[in-house]
Write a structure and sequence with these properties.
binds flavin-adenine dinucleotide, Cholesterol Oxidase, domain 2, 503 residues, 6-stranded antiparallel β-sheet, globular, FAD/NAD(P)-binding domain, binds iron/sulfur cluster
């Protein structure tokens, strides 16, 4: 594959392009390809390196350092610390995610019609973009032979309680179920934008600069003029060269955490204080159950099964693979108790709930290069989580679990009966009591027709800066309730195609 790495640049870069795309993830990767495939002059700038499958480490903590912003240690701060991870590499977070793909549910589009005025967006209107991006990244239901026993136990437990469940749709080709997705796929089976849209964009003439974080979006009057930044050494991160690129159109696709910071660093207008606000997320939490017999944890697709039956009640249930390093952090107790629990690693199943939370937060400039991220769960979200955890415990016992390790402070460390699980509902929970994660930050540059509550309009163009568009997960005015990658890709495809007629 041909791309320009930092080592290819031996001097400062001054150039121009018709379109500059910032960020090569779910949004930016798709936009760059759509424009380049139409024969347009595109530069794609990515802060992180472009890795091959053989570059990935199978050591969990090494991968965190290699692939993620802030070494994978980012957290949203509020009533508790909720870890949130974003990748820093070509393909963005699509390079490391679990490949779970959902179309955007109908009711979410409807919520955006009022008060955001986004009546153009309907399931019918977006369907061709979902179809195109689905075909391009090979989205299909997980093959049953790749599932682990912990997926099948999930299926049988939910079925016994009368709920449906099914194999998750994933964007993979030739997946062997090794379970390493979140550390980068060593088999090049994971069809993130790093293996699909970005190589195709480059083949169509897009100039890709990896290791090239944009620092400022440049504006003349009320119109975008270009971008500037620094080319960094891929290994040490040290600055090597400066770049300045003039462009007719700039597309910001650095993700929900980066975009507000780039905006503020560039001194772009924000008279209503909307930029960076309204951060939404899907906080998730998993429960570990222990079963007789091997469950295949850690040796099958990390997330192969889901139950959407309670989606309208803002809960999505999914299976979760868990490498031993993560199990080691999650197990309660110490000494002999801890050792006993860990000795059952191969009998564990981890099932999680992802909540369409009412909580909101904001992203602002932080110390150094890390953003300041604040997020507050709503009390309703906590109640919902407690209910969901009680349900997962019930599912586990229905599926034949010996015991359940809830990992919630204030309730017994090990639950051996369903009655004991009632403590999840009666205990007055605090966000600090639960080990949550929120890897779907959305909404910090939201879309709408009213500049006092949104940053970009229905064409994803900034209300206050002409020819500056935002096309990634940060534009969604509410959270989605489903894993967001496919929606981000489809909206990027839809809005990038509009650019072709507009410019
Ligand atoms: C571990 C994990 C598992 C996940 N699993 C799933 C899943 O299975 N299914 C799903 O739907 N979602 C999943 N997600 C979430 C999903 O991957 C993201 O929501 C999605 O990739 C976001 O797309 P984006 O384009 O907004 O941002 P990203 O994909 O994160 O892309 C942003 C890109 O911009 C780059 N960038 C940032 N700042 C700059 C700058 N200044 N200059 C140049 N480039 C910059 C970043 O390095 C990055 O490459 C997961 C997330 C994580 C962390
Ligand atoms: S399970 Fe393994 S082979 Fe399949 S996509 Fe994930 S890392 Fe690649």
């Amino acid at each position: 594959m041909r791309h320009t790495l930092d080592r290819d640049l031996t001097a400062d870069l001054k150039t121009s392009a018709e379109f500059v795309v910032i960020g090569s993830g779910a949004g930016g990767g798709v936009v760059a390809q759509v424009l380049a495939a139409a024969g347009r002059d595109v530069i794609l700038l990515e802060a992180g390196p472009w890795y091959e499958g053989s570059d990935y480490s199978n050591d969990f903590w090494d991968s965190m350092k290699q692939l993620y912003w802030d070494k994978g240690l980012r957290a949203m701060r509020g009533r508790s610390m909720i870890p949130t991870m974003q990748a820093r590499c070509v393909g963005g977070t699509t390079t490391v995610n679990s490949s779970i793909c959902f179309r955007l549910p109908d009711y979410v589009y409807r919520e955006w019609h009022d008060p955001f005025g986004l009546t153009e967006y309907t399931a019918e209107q977006l369907e061709p973009s979902f179809d195109r991006t689905g075909a391009f990244t090979n989205i299909h239901p997980t093959d049953r032979e790749l599932l682990g026993r912990f997926d099948l136990l999930f299926e049988s437990g939910f079925a016994k309680l009368g709920y449906g469940s099914k194999p998750i749709q994933r964007n993979v080709r030739g997946c062997n179920g090794c379970g390493l997705c979140n550390q980068g796929c060593p088999f090049d089976a994971h069809m993130g934008t790093d293996r699909t849209y970005v190589p195709s964009a480059v083949e169509h003439g897009c100039r890709l600069y990896a290791n090239s974080p944009v620092e400022r979006v440049l504006v003349r009057g009320d119109q975008v003029h270009g971008v500037s930044g620094t080319v960094r050494d891929a290994t040490s991160g040290k600055p090597k060269h400066r770049f300045a690129i003039t462009a007719k159109v700039v597309i910001l696709a650095g993700g929900s955490m980066a975009n507000p910071v780039i905006w503020k660093n560039s001194g772009l207008p924000d008279p209503h204080g909307v930029v960076g606000r309204h951060l939404t997320n899907h906080p998730g939490i998993g429960i570990t159950s222990v079963f007789p017999g091997c469950t295949d944890i850690g040796i099958s697709v990390p997330q192969g099964f889901e139950s959407s039956d309670l989606r309208s009640e803002r809960m999505m249930f999914e299976t979760l693979g868990m490498p031993p390093e993560v199990a080691a952090v999650r197990m309660p107790g110490w000494g002999g108790t801890y050792k006993d629990l860990m000795s059952r690693y191969h009998n564990m199943a981890m099932w999680g709930v992802m909540v369409r939370a009412r909580g909101e937060g904001y992203v602002a400039k932080g110390l150094g290069s890390s953003p300041k991220i604040v997020y507050h769960l709503h009390d309703d979200d906590l109640r919902l989580m407690a209910r969901a955890l009680r349900l997962i415990t019930e599912v586990a016992f229905e599926a034949g679990a010996e015991y359940v390790i809830p990992g919630v402070r204030g309730v017994p460390k090990v639950l051996r009966t369903l009655k004991e699980a009632d403590a999840l509902l009666s205990h007055p929970l605090h966000p600090r009591d639960m080990m949550m994660i929120g890897n779907h930050p959305l909404g910090t540059m939201r879309m709408g027709d009213d500049p006092s509550i949104s940053v970009v309009d229905a064409n994803a163009e900034a209300h206050l800066v002409k020819n500056l568009h935002v096309m990634d997960g940060s534009i969604f005015p509410t959270n989605l309730g489903v894993n967001p990658m496919w929606s981000i890709m489809a909206f990027a495809d839809y809005n990038a195609n509009k650019l072709l007629t507009r410019y």
